[in-house]
Amino acid sequence: MDTKFASPKTLLDQIVVRAPQAATGQSIAQRFGALEFVSPPEVIHALLLRIHERLEPAEEEELRAWRNLCLTCTFVFEKLSSPDEAYWRAVNLREQVVTDFESLARDVSQRVFELVGYRNLMKTTHNRELNNKDLAAAWKQHVIQCESKFSDKVTENFVDTAMKVYNRLFVACPDSLHIIMEDAKMNGKASPFNQMSALEQITMKCKTPENVLWVMRSIMDYMHNMPDEFGAQNFTFRQLKGAQGSVGYIQLFLTKKEIMEHFLTNVLSKFPRDEFKDFVKGNLTSHQGFRSFCGSEQEAVDLSWQGEHSDAEIQSVQFLKIVVFSKALDGHLKTVLKGTTNIEDVMMSQKVADIVTELMLKLEAEINPGAVKSSALVPDDDCEETKVSLESLVDSDLLEDEDKARDLQEHFKAVQEYVGRFITFRVAEQSVLKTQQALEGTVLKKFPVRGKHWCIWYDTKVQGESSAQPHCRCPPYQKATFKKHVQAALAVRDQSELGEQTLVMCMDGFRSLEGQFSKDLQQPSGDPMVKNRTTFQVAYDEKALRTRKMLTRGMVSQVEGLHVYSSEGLSLQDRDRMTYHGSTHGSLIGPVIVAPFKEGFLLSRESKEKFLGDDGKILAGGACPSQTPVPDLGDKVPVTYYSLPTVFYSEMIHSFELGGVYDSTCMDVSFALACLKSKTPYVGSCLSEFACQALEAEVIRICWKEFLTPESPLYDINLHKLVEDVNVKAPKGKSGRGGKGGKNGRSGKSGRGGQGGKSGADDTAEEGAGEGGKGGKGGQSGADSKSGRGKGGKSKGTTEADIMGLLNSLSVWREGTKKINAKQADLAALREKTQNQRKAVQALEEEVETLKRRKARQLRVGSCCSGLSAELLALETLGVWFVSCLGCEIEPKVLSLNQAMHGHCHVFRDCCTEEFLASPGCDLFVAGFPCQPFSKAGCNRGILDPRGVVIFWILRWLWLHKPACFVLENVGNFAQQHKETLSMIMNILTAMQIYHVEWKVLENSTVGWLPQHRERIFICGVLKVHWSQPFDWPGDVAMLPLRAFFKEDREHREHLGIDSLNNTEKKNVQKAVATIREQGWKAEDHDYVCDISGSVPHSMWGVSPCLTVTRAGSSGHWLSWLGRKMTTSEILSLQGISLERVGDYSNHMSERQLRRAAGNAVPVPLLSRVLKMPCVMSGCQVPDEVASALGRINAEITAERELQHQLALQEASLLSQKVSLLEEIRKAEDKALNAVKQFTGDSAVQVPFTGYGAVQDAEMKPGFSEVEHELLQAALVGSALTAAKGVFLHICTYVCADDGTYGAVIAL
């Protein structure tokens, strides 16, 4: 109506009327009752409705024009001999109108009744029964059917289906027609019920009218109450039916109906109040009734009625809301339905069962108060293993002295408080909700307290105990338990995904379970979590394993997988492991030496049963691979047969930088003790209350011992004095378990003494005494040293002259340092030059800003499908003074970041709404309408895709608001494979008669400076009142060098290198490198960028392939010369966007989502060149002075980038020289150390090299010869610990000085 009758114009359509056979000329006017309307009446109805709207506001002249229009309509009277002839004439006239107005096309239900009407007509007029085949043939013979996306062609199959739908749906269930008509009012031709195949599926799968109405009302309910997530496009034939291997919405909705019926029969019946049961059955079992009482996200209602009901009754209503009338569990239910459709099985599935269990427990608590057990840790007075007291830790003699007993009691309380500060045990509950509630009061919510990460630890070996032969077989993996603990721990922190600080660490029990772990890391909705897996290998000592399993033959599995999941790639600080060999960047951890069972945590058999609780025994099927004897430990048994040493868990805390641990499989105290020693908060989930009590008591017992152990970090010297009642000496240094024997003597067993400890808490503490075995390594400098009887020897054949000559070999260190100093001076000068360049750029930017505000008028800008609003970034580079009037973006996280970056005056979520059409106008409008429907990389379905029609809403907005100029953007393929759609858009814009419009496809790498292949079509329009010259499209420019956008970085290579790729990407890298080699080049020496994420790799030299949303989200492409993929900053820079301009995005989206948003953007420099053209034409041109200043800025930025590139190359060269020099120093170190040993005997000990160092020369000490002093210098450089004249020299650390020198700081 708005288009055809916007103004009173001549009605060109002829109105066909059927006249009686006998009517001629003037007699027609006298046969009004015999005339029959044949043309589609909607055209006349639209005309009359428009006139009715204009009667009030229209002027006299306009009303006369409407009157003339009505008086000048052309009527054509036709004599149609039979009703069927009139029928076919009416059908064909409608088909003709549909070619101009698709909204007049018959929808599916209208077409069905049209076919039924003709069949009935033939029966009444000709007494002829038409079968489906004859009906289809008659239609084909008489109707010239037009092409329309809103109506299907009438074929024999269509007629067959239409008759089934009519009989089984419209006749058997008349109310279904009312639902279809109601939905058509809301969604028009886009209604999900305007699909014959969809209606057929509903009739086939819904066996009863009740089921039909339930499914149709469920679809309506989803679209009305969750419009942001569900529309007609979500209920297509395929989605209703379910693709191969998946569950469709019809089956899902029918299952929800069964769940509700099961709930009413088996759950609601247990509620005592009949009034509540009647209320639920009468009001909350239909969609309309439930929404009227409980509301939805779109519509709030009065909930005061809930005050009349108990908590359990309200929770039962919540069950209906969560499971039946929302999408919260849709993913979970679809997963369950893949395996079973039995409603009992569905009700027993984890998430549904969790809610029902929680509901029944609350109901039981209301009916029988006190019947539900509390989960508080109540001590078991009948079991000594759950109690710990001071009397059980010290001799009774010590408690006879009242003062000493009081002091000991204070210390015992201090130990309990210390354990309580860091260690918490909780009972593992049955459901996610109850587990979450149990964890709510713990410190888990504040993780990580210190450190970089916190972890959810899950060890499949100790998730319970195997029901058969637990000493030699692991319990089966329990995926429900794993998912419960992960989801509950994250829910406590208000997370549904893994955060940046969260690690999920899984031990697979010598089984390859990584695929299962990855699958089971799911959100509560059932959707998979965004995750990245890094696998480590834990290597066990073979002898220790054989001792545990008491094996005499056969193979022993020594390597277990540790799978670490994080939201992004795992980033760890590169440092040495605390206990085991290697560094934290190695994938092997070990060798882990496990203790014999007799040294572990032991319980009586009765206590073990209590410890495991009701769910601790896990059924294990199949035969055990090897029968091994049960370890004989008397009346005791290990609490777990798969405990790990405390040092292993200490290594986990150190290597993974943990600041908090949630141990979801807590079966012993080793992990808790490791956390206690490192002061890391720990929450352990136990199998029973008894287990919590027993573990807490055991931790206190061991902690008491640690307070009395001098080597422990928890050592308390005052407590030690109280307990031992002796003059306790200060603890030794970290190196001191064994004393060192006589020089060059034979080795014996080491004694208890060490090399001497630091001063203790007591001022009278002495150095630790060494006590060695005979002829062994006795202590040398202790207060009570008993050195061994081995004969010490002085150097043989080594003279002072030899050592002096050896020291000269260290000249490589001195010469290398001089060269590096010179290089660093050049580097400092280059850095200063770069900083000056940056200052010059900033000064020019300030000048541009001043010129903008002084000379340019403010431009009002609007955008649709805004993304990161590249158009505003482009205008910033042009120096245009603007204000963003409106922005529209359907992705909420992208919209949030966009608003933070630009601050739009008005923000909209969806452009396909009347609200957006009513938005304010602007001078410049830019829209990058969805490219997926038109892209080769997308579905390429064009306007048949629901997203493809967005362009028509944009065109409506342009017609309503008429901005001075506009730019529409999409992929280059739009002009190649969708020419008809392009032609349609151009025709619509031309028909507006107010714009001059042109389009062109531009290639980013040739027009937009940036080295990225990216073709884009731009459709530009300028109001004809402003247009005075042809469009001046931007021409080719020199592309910036590819390497200017990337730099060498070791950390980037580690996180984005070959190890970070999946198997397909690794294979594609190999293929790409091989292809480049076949062409005669070396990939690592040339600037090749390889797209390795597809099935076939694609490489380009000197330019990057297109960064699509998918490719950008997976860290871009492979850089051959750097051996890695792209960083987020580099991906943004290839789109002309700086990470600094984006700002802090962490509060809006993840890093991966930012990369995807960047992949969806238009290259900023390219867009700036395109925008300048319509801006100039529409009077919003860039001032000359601003343009000049911008040109100088571009020149300065180019120079700055070149300087930064030189700086990066020189820094890489400097690093290479440092590494080479370090190798030379190591060689000299070995020589110096050997000389020191020969000169001083065996008392020189190698200390591991720990890094670079700054030299601090040792001063000449009294009694030292010059040669000895030079020898100290050699030890200084050579990383040695030596003794001379009874004075110990300790090389404390290595650091790197600013002047590039190397060495160590020593302590005398």
UniProtKB/TrEMBL annotation:
<keyword id="KW-0175">Coiled coil</keyword>
<keyword id="KW-0949">S-adenosyl-L-methionine</keyword>
<dbReference type="GO" id="GO:0008168">
    <property type="term" value="F:methyltransferase activity"/>
</dbReference>
<feature type="compositionally biased region" description="Gly residues">
    <location>
        <begin position="770"/>
        <end position="781"/>
    </location>
</feature>
<dbReference type="InterPro" id="IPR018117">
    <property type="entry name" value="C5_DNA_meth_AS"/>
</dbReference>
<feature type="coiled-coil region">
    <location>
        <begin position="1211"/>
        <end position="1238"/>
    </location>
</feature>
<dbReference type="InterPro" id="IPR001525">
    <property type="entry name" value="C5_MeTfrase"/>
</dbReference>
<feature type="compositionally biased region" description="Gly residues">
    <location>
        <begin position="738"/>
        <end position="759"/>
    </location>
</feature>
<keyword id="KW-0489">Methyltransferase</keyword>
<feature type="region of interest" description="Disordered">
    <location>
        <begin position="730"/>
        <end position="799"/>
    </location>
</feature>
<keyword id="KW-0808">Transferase</keyword>
<feature type="coiled-coil region">
    <location>
        <begin position="820"/>
        <end position="861"/>
    </location>
</feature>
<protein>
    <submittedName>
        <fullName>Modification methylase NgoBI (M.NgoBI) (Cytosine-specific methyltransferase NgoBI) (M.NgoI)</fullName>
    </submittedName>
</protein>
<comment type="similarity">
    <text>Belongs to the class I-like SAM-binding methyltransferase superfamily. C5-methyltransferase family.</text>
</comment>
<dbReference type="InterPro" id="IPR050750">
    <property type="entry name" value="C5-MTase"/>
</dbReference>
<dbReference type="Pfam" id="PF00145">
    <property type="entry name" value="DNA_methylase"/>
</dbReference>
<dbReference type="InterPro" id="IPR029063">
    <property type="entry name" value="SAM-dependent_MTases_sf"/>
</dbReference>
<feature type="active site">
    <location>
        <position position="931"/>
    </location>
</feature>
<dbReference type="GO" id="GO:0032259">
    <property type="term" value="P:methylation"/>
</dbReference>
